[in-house]
Amino acid sequence: MNFLLLGPLSVRLNAREVHVSAPRQRVVLAALLLNANRVISVDRIAEYVWDDAPPPSAAATVRTYVMRLRQSLGEHASARILTRAPGYLLELGEHESDLGQFTAHRRRAAELADRGDLEGSSAELAEALALWREEPLADIPSRTLRDVEGRYLQELRLQTMELRFDAELALLRHAEVVPELVRLVRKHPLREALVGKLMLALFRSGRQSEALDLYRRTRVLLVEQLGAEPSADLREIHRNILSAHDRPRPPDPLEQPATAPEAAVATAPAAVRERSCWPSPAQLPSVPLPLSARSGALARLQHFLTTGTMPAGMVATAVVTGRGGVGKSALALHAAHAVRGSSVHGQLYADLGGAARPLTARAVLPRFLADLGVPRDEVPEEEPEQESLYRSLTAGRRLLVVLDNVSSTAQVRPLIPGSGGSRLLVTSRRRLADLEGARTLLLDPLDEAGSLELLGSIVGPARVGAEPRAARSVLTVCAGLPLAIRIAGTRLLERPHWSIGHFARRLTEAPRLLDELCAGDNGVRPCLDADHAGLRRTAPAGVDPAEAFTALGAAGACSVSSSRAAVMFGCSEAQAEEALDALVEANLLGAPLGGRYRLDALLRAYARERAEAVAVQQHGHPYMRAG
User: Fold this and answer.
1) Distance CA 362, CA 348 (A)
2) What is the pLDDT of residues 535-583, one digit of tens each?
3) What is the mean pLDDT of residues 412-429?
4) Which range has highest mean pLDDT (66-75, 117-126, 249-258, 370-379)?
5) Closest C-alpha to 381, from 369, 373, 393, 395
6) Which of 153, 361, 369, 410 is the most exposed place for a label (fewest CB within 10 A)?
7) Distance CA 165, CA 266 (A)
């Protein structure tokens, strides 16, 4: 019996392949395999099967899936699936899955390296890597499982490759590893650990100029895509190569060449093992070039992340907040890349899904623990124990933890690193005022100059300069929202035969404006839907903010005072103000200016759509009351 996970999921029983065709049963099987010999709760399985949104009947349905899975696997294999409160346990020998064999090879490699046998260690790591086929979990229809477990497996594979390269470099096999490193660096051009190893391999093979050129190209790529300089380790390798650039010579097989810090790790067996236990994650996604219009906000955020100090027991925390599509994630990631040098123990990143599909800390903690070097079978099952271990591992370290698209403080608290030099960077549409000690940066929509800069960066400054008035008309409709401007720019870029004036007329004359602001899988409407879904409800005696928003849409209001709103809603002015403030909090209404709350073009269009939808459902529903 052999379960294969390091590629498409499959089961082999006595040389016969058993295919589990039902998608959700494959999710259950993958969850059991990834937690082999440990109890996994029904609730956790349900989170994977229904992507963190299980129905009320989830527990009973999971039990049905397990029953059918047992039937599919047959008597011998199904006997391994045991019912153990609060869920199930799959009994599996280490040799009975490719993941178990992979883990065993890694363990033996660490033991051999500890004894100084780098030859044997490298061979074991090669055996481990030979077990991989294709992308793991690719045929498993669970976004949550792929995000939590798939990312862990891919990172584990890359770390294993890096350990093997370290051993090969220490064994002076520089030329032999160059071809494979070239292929991997092309696939992961921003993974600086791989770039550094390729630079060392090229340098020691007498190819110093190629090593220096690789550093130059990598630096350009990092600056262009991430707005950040190479890490301290990569700069050190570059300096070491430069110091020998005028004295090139082939490496002497009888002499250990001078090495940079990364190669020194490979020559020290104990350090190799330490590195495998304490990886330095580098999980920050890439972002487009920063806008000069955001330079002030970026500088403030960077300053706090590098110099912010907190009382003992607290972690310096920054929250970037603002309406959906305003560029919070881009700004936060630019700042995160810029301060990588101060987070010497790595950067952790998680997208928590926003209000529409929030990802709980329960789903993120196991991945973070694995990324920090905890073996899978040592990750505690219970969330309080996971939190405790997470705080212990991060205490005293200098990590940067980035939590994107947060919808509530409850998601953040379990993921706050232990006290010490770590930093926490959060993006959220909410202010998260109950997140103790957090520094909040409110990101406003772009002004006209910033909007023109962004549009010009997409369609070209010449095209914008040729039709300045039409460009301003387009940007007025986009209301300074970078998401809307990027979509507008993308549509113009895809249609070079359109003039900007033609597109401006389409926007201003469209019966449903938000239909025009959609390109591919990007749209303004889903962003506003998420804001609307996150509306908080008032007390029973108050006005429902959703109904208040519908009323504003039915009236076609551009702005409203609290007194006028009270007449529209048929309530007291205090109740109207409470409902309007709830809309401001949800980014569906502009903060009051001169006593009036304002709706920009995008919010007016969306409010009108909501009103039309209600009219279809409730014909004759009174949106307004005469006062």
Assistant:
1) 16
2) 876 656 678 899 999 999 999 889 999 999 999 988 999 999 999 998 9
3) 90
4) 117-126
5) 369
6) 410
7) 8
Spatial distance between the Cα atoms of 610 and 453, rounded to a whole number of angstroms? 32
Local structure of 204: helix, strand or coil: helix
For residues 445 and 479, the answer to whether their CB atoms sit within 8 Å is: yes
**Which secondary-structure segment (H or E) carries 88?**
strand 87-90
pLDDT digits (tens, 9 = 90+) for 132-147: 887 888 888 888 888 8
The pLDDT value given to residue 214: 93
pLDDT tens, residue by residue, 434-452: 888 889 999 999 999 999 9
Cα–Cα distances in angstroms (integers) from residue 126 to residues 102, 106, 131, in the given order:
10, 9, 9
Cα(383)–Cα(605) distance, rounded to whole angstroms? 43
d(CA 453, CA 440): 26
Amino acid residing at 482: P
Whether 7 and 17 have beta carbons less than 8 Å apart is answered as: no
Handedness of CA 8, 11, 17, 21 (dihedral sign): negative
- Strand 522-523 versus strand 518-519 pairing type: antiparallel
Rg (CA), the chain: 28
H or E element in which residue 543 lies? none
CA distance 62 to 60: 5
Scanning 244-294, the segments in alpha helix (DSSP H) are 261-267, 269-277
Cα–Cα distance for residue pair 465/621, rounded to 1 Å: 48
Is 555:624 a contact under the CB 8 Å cutoff?
yes
562 in Cβ contact with 576 (< 8 Å): yes
The pTM score is 0.62
- Can you give the pLDDT at residue 15? 60
